[in-house]
Amino acid sequence: MSDAPRDAPMGAGRLGWLDTAKALAIGLVVFGHASRSVERTDGLSWGEGLRLADQLIYSFHIPLFFVLAGYAASLVAGRGFGAQARGLFWGVAVPYLVWTVAWVGLKIVFPGSVNEPAAWSDLATALWRPVEHMWFLQHLLIARLFWIAVDRLEAGGLKAGSAIVVALFAVASWIATVEGEPRSVAALLGNIALVGVGAIWVPALLKRAGDVRLFAAAGMAFVAWGIVAMQLGADDLGLMSFVAAVLASFVVLVAVWQLPPPSGRFARTIAFLGEASLAIYVIHSIVIALVRAMLHKAGALDETVLIALGTVLGIAVPAVLYWAALALSVRMGWPLTRYAGLGTATRSHYIAIQRPVPVVATAAPARS
After folding, report:
1. Is 120 in a helix, a strand, or coil?
2. Are 276 and 22 a contacting pair, CB within 8 Å?
């Protein structure tokens, strides 16, 4: 175990534990969507084991992302509003717009490969009615803007911020019980609260990362999460779903805090997947849909094959595309990753990308 501070950035502003946690979260997201593609495919069987895995995964995988995003936001909280707004524009708004257009376009061009058809009119309503999994970016943008406003009002301290987090959870839980209410309102308020958990509670916990009492608390939280999650449906929304999300996120954080900084090839690859998690998130559903269509055409559509290939390629293909975008950014000197809606990075901390060696012209030898 490294003696380096747990919250010390690993060069280029990267935190190894944060990227490792994001890698775990995005891996569960891709597996969950690959598994649900089995449920939505005629002729395939979505067994009890997959249903249970789905129930447990969906109790915390996306909430964990909101918590991690909240902690990342706390690292830049001291910057001015303009700097934070630019980060949100390139890191959240542009990916939302670029990949909403891409997703709608692909659905229109390949209607037979998707479960829910789309029309160009969906782009006109995309600002308030996200297309499928793009809702995460919409909620994240609103949540970040909310907490920036709280900070500017100087109400984001530990006590005041905690009170806001608890109030948001309480209101979201109450709204979720109101008959006929739009679930999106309760979900949005709960996700804003989760970002607050990451921004306000996680930094306080991180200072006690090596405390034995924290390990004991994580063990009890794991048991409590298992009990609560087993009682939830995969898409349940309300107080107990928020409790399960916070408990599981706490367990994951305590676990990754014990890991040394990623240095070996395997650890750095895992951390790179966390670094590439935005690219994987916006692209993976397209890859899974293509995998399903290709397996169907080849007559090899099978539950195990679809989940395995969908998960592996759903992670690997976007990660390779992200690396290629970074490599082009380095070689061309343009932030292509930003224009492609893949985030704000211009280089990878975990996988080396060589800069082109400039060609130096040499004068021809003088004739005698």
Report:
1. coil
2. no
Q: Calculate Rg over the CA atoms of the chain.
A: 22
Token reading at 187 = 């979900």
Helix axis angle, 239-257 relative to 212-231, nearest 10°?
A: 140
Helix (H) or strand (E) holding 40: none
* Measured CA angle at 317 (ends 357, 280), to 5 deg: 100
- Comparing CA positions, the residue from 10, 5, 85 lying closest to residue 344 is 85
Q: List the structure tokens of 232.
A: 């939830």
Task: Tally Cβ neighbours within 10 Å of residue 214.
Answer: 18
Burial bucket for residue 282 (CB in 10 Å: 0-12, 13-18, 19+) = buried
Q: How far apart are CA 28 and CA 23, in angstroms?
A: 9
Q: In this structure, what DSSP letter does residue 112 have? A: G
Mean pLDDT for each consecutive 10-residue tract of the chain (368 residues)? 38 78 98 94 90 94 97 89 92 95 84 68 84 93 95 76 95 88 88 97 92 94 96 87 97 95 93 97 94 91 95 98 93 90 90 63 47
Contact 218, 250 (CB under 8 A): yes
Q: How far, CA to CA in Å, does 350 sit from each of 19, 265, 269?
A: 10, 9, 7
C-beta separation of 6 from 260 below 8 A: no
Question: 63, 194 in Cβ contact below 8 A?
Answer: yes
Q: What is the pLDDT of residue 1?
A: 33
Burial degree of 224 (CB within 10 A; 0-12, 13-18, 19+): middle
Q: How far apart are CA 10 and CA 182, in angstroms?
A: 42
Whole-model pTM: value is 0.89
Domain residue ranges of the chain, discontinuous segments joined by +: 16-263
Q: In 3-state terms, what secondary structure has residue 47? A: coil
